[in-house]
Amino acid sequence: MNEVLIVGSVALDSIETPSGRIDNALGGAATYGSVAASLFAPVHLVGVVGDDFPQEHVEFLRSRKVDLAGLQTVEGGSTFRWKGDYNGDLNQANTHETHLGVFEHFDPQLPDHYKDANFVFLANINPELQLKTLEQVRSPQLVLCDTMNLWINIAREHVLEVFKRVNIAVLNDGEARMLTEDDNIIRAGRALQKLGPQHVIVKKGEHGAVMFSDGEIFVAPSFPLEEVVDPTGAGDSFAGSLIGYLARTGDLSRENLRRAVVHGSVVASSTVQDFSLASLKQLTHDEVERRYNAVQAMSSF
Amino acid sequence: MNEVLIVGSVALDSIETPSGRIDNALGGAATYGSVAASLFAPVHLVGVVGDDFPQEHVEFLRSRKVDLAGLQTVEGGSTFRWKGDYNGDLNQANTHETHLGVFEHFDPQLPDHYKDANFVFLANINPELQLKTLEQVRSPQLVLCDTMNLWINIAREHVLEVFKRVNIAVLNDGEARMLTEDDNIIRAGRALQKLGPQHVIVKKGEHGAVMFSDGEIFVAPSFPLEEVVDPTGAGDSFAGSLIGYLARTGDLSRENLRRAVVHGSVVASSTVQDFSLASLKQLTHDEVERRYNAVQAMSSF
In 10 A of CB A227, how many CB atoms? Predict the structure, then answer.
């Protein structure tokens, strides 16, 4: 089976939302991405933590068959920590504190058995680290990248360099507007697609996602939720399950890409139903299929 | 063929958007609704204007086979005028001025041949006038209502009274949140549906619409647009074409309701592509079907 290589942050998050709060819980783009992808395919994780990273998280990731040979542990270092809230608007995180810790001097070195990965997910992280990782993969069949407003602000040229090298770029509507300086999502998506990626997927939270391909648009619904507890990791698990689904099926046709987007959407819908990875951890493949079929029934006409 | 009775405002609008401005142009919920519905079925309009209402607009409505027997003209009275802008956010109108004019003392009197209408659209207007109109219709097969934030604010009880008497209630996401005091659209839609209507349709602008029925949700996409010139009348033409499509087909099955919602969505997508009714006036049935098929192709998976 195709394997998915994922590079990105592994973090400890402290989060406040209208539903409550948690402190120093498991988080990070690569973490959410890996657990989501592992629903569909084997995962090789690339990242870094300090020796303060709880062993229980390592054991949980191993239990999901996430290969941690590429997860460096820096003795005496501090795991990346993020503190924020979503009070006021569940679509917009307010960052209180960011401690880069061991990420400040991270130099991704891929174990040899990672270098033949066919599917690569460059999850949210400094785009220079995304590029360094990608350069070590011998001949990837499909590369997907995510990013965030921070990198668009302070490392725009590197984000654009990543865009030139990927097959699929995923970003949210705010980031699409920021990167193109265009308020209209349709124009923005088409402009982004011209920067390099064959497909650009703009995530719109509860409103679903739009995928832009050459001469074609796919408007994807979301799985409707009566309550969102914690939006953290929604985008990471969207992209992780999307590429996991592609790796599992090995089918890169446009029809299957659409199915992959909807799988991403339903996995993300589970992620946000509890804090940290509490809900995603419990998500089964059967429940993913149940939600997929429900979304299909809810949106067909 | 089934005929559609539409009551609501007939207005002269002065509008500023990022694309430009117009003064005293044809507008009003019943106007947009009637022209949209007339793409599919004969329309009986109920409304009122002053003798300042330009004859060219009367002639245009007649050319669309909109029956104006129920359009009162008050000698010496002033047509309802609205002035506003959408600068900053195309989803949110800022009202500068509202002159009720002849609407202040409007008492809808239905011509006898209107009273057997099967399909009734209570377009945006004071909910007491919606009720007065509805009471004069003998045995409507389907009643649809729209409303706006103003009436939810100042005439909430009457809005709720209307909701008890209709089959379909249409409102936008902001109005749904306001009426239920719930920020979550899925919970809000379900709560509204319990107030009486068999179906509640929450419009989300560029993000499409969600229809809530007993035990079922329909998530409808919108027709993607690279440019929105003037959002005025989008909701009115959405509802007008929706009920027009139902009247034309005479099919009230859930499957056909879904098709009606998507027809509403594509007609609205045309309305917003120019100021006032400029684009809607030009819209042909063929173009509606082309956009319908395009949306279906863009959203299937």
Answer: 11
SS3 B163: helix
Name residues whose C-beta falls within 8 Å of residue B193's C-beta, 6 or more positions apart in sequence: B199, B200, B212, B213, B214
β-partners of residue A72 are A48
Do the chains contact at B255 and A301, CB–CB below 8 Å? yes
What is the identity of the amino acid at B92?
Q
Distance CA(A20)–CA(A236), nearest Å, equals: 22
Q: How many CB pairs under 8 A join A and B?
A: 78
B102-114 in b/e form (b: 16+ CB < 10 A) is bbeebebebeeeb
Per-10-residue mean pLDDT for chain A, 301 residues long?
96 96 98 98 98 97 97 97 90 91 95 98 96 98 95 95 98 96 96 97 97 96 96 97 98 98 98 98 97 98 97
User: pLDDT by residue (tens digit) across B79-94?
Assistant: 999 999 998 788 888 9
> CB of A294 within 8 Å of any CB in chain B?
no
pLDDT in tens, A128-155: 999 999 999 999 999 999 999 989 999 9
User: Which member of A186, A296, A301 has the closest CB to residue B301?
Assistant: A296
Q: Residue ranges of the alpha helices (H) in chain B?
A: 29-37, 55-63, 127-135, 149-154, 156-165, 173-180, 185-193, 234-249, 254-271, 278-282, 285-299
pLDDT attached to residue B89:
81
Of B216, B227, B295, the CB nearest to A184: B227
Nearest to B150 by CA among B108, B207, B103: B103
Query: Are B301 and A220 an interchain contact pair (Cβ–Cβ within 8 Å)?
Result: yes
The predicted model scores a pTM of 0.95
- Taking CB atoms and an 8 Å limit, are A208 and B207 in contact across chains? yes
What are the chain B neighbours of A262 within 8 Å (beta carbons)?
Answer: 301
Query: Residue A88's pLDDT is what?
Result: 76
Half-sphere exposure of A234 (CA within 13 A, CB side): 26
Confidence at residue B268, expressed as pLDDT on a 0 to 100 scale: 98
Per CB-CB distance under 8 Å, the chain A contacts of B185 are: 206
B184 three-class SS:
coil
